[in-house]
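Quick one, T. Sequence first:
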Amino acid sequence: MSDRKNQKGKPRGKSYGHPMYQAQGEQRHYLQACVKPDVWAVIQQLKADHGITISGAAHHLMRLGAGLPPLFPFNQPSSDSND
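Structure tokens:
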């Protein structure tokens, strides 16, 4: 994991959607949502398992729910496979 830190000096999670920061000029849309405890638990688990941000985990779940393909790092072949 990179050595990126947030403003308080704590390590940040990986960016979701691109191995580096999003491309310059890429449109972004922000939303705020209140989620039920079961959804929050899944978001927290994705965050812990993959080292991504809460926002990245929520974005991943929204893409899957919309029938869209996953973005980085979920579109990469798994290195856990020993086949």
